[in-house]
Model the fold of this input.
Amino acid sequence: QEEKKQLTLKVEELERKLESTSAQNIEFLQVIAKREESIHQCQLRLEEKSRECSSLARQLEMAIEDAKRQVEQARERAVSRERAAQSKMLDLETQLSRNKTELNQLHRNKEDAERRYESRLQDLRDRLEQSESTNRSMQNYVQFLKSSYDNVF
Done:
């Protein structure tokens, strides 16, 4: 009977331990459930953040491509303006050279015309002087003839 009592005590002790262990298991299961829920929530947030990051990465890539396109277009416009300016400058330099050549020719023509004018003017002065001299001589001769005629009659 002592043995039976011992066994009963042992069984009761084991039942208490079993109850305690069962209670602990329930607590552990609750903790695990809470942690699994927390992990699940974290996983959902992670997936949301991943989608957000992917979206932002696509937007960034599109913005970079757009910026590259704009830079390339601006560069092409600048190159085009540079070429147009170079062409215009070359045209203006050519026109300036032609104008200088034409101006020099006009100066030479003017100087030639002035020399011819001066020469012709001098020639006309000489002829006028010759004509006036001839005129004076003729007037003197006419005067002489008048005097002579008056003296004769």
The two ends are 218 Å apart (CA to CA). The chain is about 100% helix and 0% strand. The chain has a mean pLDDT of 96. The CA atoms of residues 95 and 101 lie 10 Å apart.
